[in-house]
Amino acid sequence: MSGPAVLPDSASERTTRYPRHWRRPPLISNGRLRWAIYAGVLLYLVVGIGAVEVNWGRLSEGWERGLRFLGGFIEPDFVSRWDDIRAGLIESLTMTLTATVVGVLISIPVGIGAARNIAPSTIYLACRALIALSRSLQEIIVAILFVAMVGFGPLAGFLTLTFATIGFLAKLLAEDIEDIDAAQVEAVRATGAGWWQVLDYGIRSQVTPRLIGLSLYRLDINFRESAVIGIVGAGGVGATLNTALDRYEYDSAAAILILIIAIVLVTEYVSGWVRTRVQ
Amino acid sequence: MAIRQTPDGPIWRKRTTPQSIALWFGWLLLVLLFVLAWEAMTRNQIWAFVWDAPEQAADLFGRMVPPRWSYMDKLWGPLWDTINIATLGTLLAIVLAVPVAFLAARNTTPSPLLVRPIAIFIIVASRSVNALIWALLLVAILGPGLLAGIIAIALRSIGFIGKLLYEAIEEIDLRQVEAVRATGAGPAQVLDYGIVPQIMPAFAGITLFRWDINIRESTVLGLVGAGGIGLQLKASVDSLAWPQVTLIFVVILGTVILSEWVSARVRAALI
C-alpha cells in the first residue's frame, strides 16, 4: 500500500532476479507428518535403546574374551578336536547332499502341482498350502520338532533341510513354469502329444536350466543351514561349534568357523560357475 | 545336437554320443555320492526311534494343542525385545554397511586395489555366517542379553545390505554424476547430489527387506541366549511344556506375517 510508484520497480526486480539457491524437496512433502515421523523415530530410539541393559562389568570381561577369540582366529587349533570337527563336517556335508537330492525330487511334482497353468485347482491349492507351510516355518523351529520326533542326530537335520528345500524350490519352480512360453507347449500339443509328452517336451526343456541353477543354489543354502540346526540337536558341525564354545575353546571354535566360511566360499564359487555354464 | 546315421536314414538326437556318456556318468556319480552320504549319515542312527516317529508325532501334536493362551502375559515383554533386536540391529547394520558399500563399489571406492578387497572381504565374511552363529559367539564373549542379539543381527546384515547396496551404486547413471560435477561440485557434493538420490529407492527397499528377515531371525536368537522370544521358546522346549511352545509358534508366525504386512505398506508408500 505504499503507492503506485513502487510497483513497476518491484515487478522489474522480480523478473530479473533469478534464484541463487535451490533446496531439494524433502522426502515427505507434508511438513507436519514429516516432523511427526521424526519425533516418533526419535522416541522409539530413546525407548528402544533404553531397554537394552548393558552390563558394563560383563562387557569389560568380554573385551578380554573377545581378544582371546580374535587370537583364536590368528592361531586356529585344527588338531586337538579334529575328530569331533571331522565328524561334524561329514554330518553336515552328508545331510546337505542327501537333503538337497531328496528335496529336489519331491519339489518337482509339488512345483508342477503348484503351477496354475497346468495343475487342476484342488491340486494347486494343496501344493500351494504345503509350500506356504514350509516357507513360513523357520528351519530351526522345524528342526526342534523333528528332533522331538526322531531323536537327536543328522536324520532330524536331513528331514528339516528336505522340508525347507521343498518350500523354496517348489515355489520358484512353480513360478518358472507359470512364466514359460505357452506357444512352445501349444506346438508340442499340436503334434498330438499326450499330457506326459507335453510335460516332457514342452515344459521340462524350458525349465531345466533354471531348475539346475536353483538346486545348486539350494545346495549352498542347505550347507549354511546345516551349520546352524546342530544347535538344537539336529546333527552337523553346528553342534560341534556349540560344544567348543561351551568349553571356552575359542581356538577350536575359530577353526570350525574358518572351515565353515571356506566351504561356503568354495560351494558358492563352484555353484556359481556351474550355473553360468548351464544357463 | 547330433545326427546319427542309420540304414533307415538320419535320426535327430539332442546330444552326441560322448556327451550322453558323460551325462550318464555324471548322474551315476551323483547317485553314488548320494548312497555314500546316506550310508555315512545313518550309520549311527537308531531306527527304532524312526519307526515310531508317526506315533511320536501324533503324541507330540496331542500334547501341543490346545495352546496355553494364559502364557501370553509373559510373552509381551520378550516380543517387544525381539522387535527391538531386529530394528536396532538393522539400524546398526545400516550405519556400518553404508560406508562399506561405498568402499566396495567400483565407481566410488578410493582404491580398487587396496580398499575394495577389504570391503568385499567384510561383506563375504558377514554373509557366510548365520545370525544364529554370530549370536552364539557374541553370547560367549559378551554374555547373554539383548546386546548380543542386536550385534549379531547387525553383523549378519552388513553383508546383505552392503552387497545389494554396492551393486546398486555400481549401476547408477554416470551422466547425472557428471552433470553435478560439471557445476563445480566437490567430491562430497557429488556424492550427496549425484549418487545418493539415485540409490535412495534401492536403499529403502533393501533395508526394509532386511528388517523383515531380521524379525524372523531375531525370534530364534534366544535359543542361544541372545534375548527375545527365543529365550521363552528354549525354556519351554527344555521343560517339555509343549502347549507353551505352540503358543510361541503362533506368536512368532503372527509377528512374521505382521512384519511382512508393515514392510509391504512402507515399501508401497516410499517407492
Give an overview in words:
The complex is a heterodimer of chains A (279) and B (271). With 279 residues, chain A is an all-alpha fold. Chain A has eleven helices and no strands. In chain A, α3 crosses α11, α4 runs antiparallel to α9 and α4 crosses α10. The termini of chain A are far apart. The relative contact order of chain A is 0.12. In chain B, 76% of the residues lie in helices and 4% in strands. Chain B is mainly alpha-helical and 271 residues long. Chain B is built from eleven helices and two strands, in the order ββααααααααααα. The model of chain B has no long low-confidence stretch (mean pLDDT 87).
List keywords for this structure.
heterodimer, A: mainly alpha, 0% strand, disordered N terminus, B: 271 residues, mainly alpha
Briefly summarize what is shown:
The complex is a heterodimer of chains A (279) and B (271). By secondary structure, chain A is mainly α.
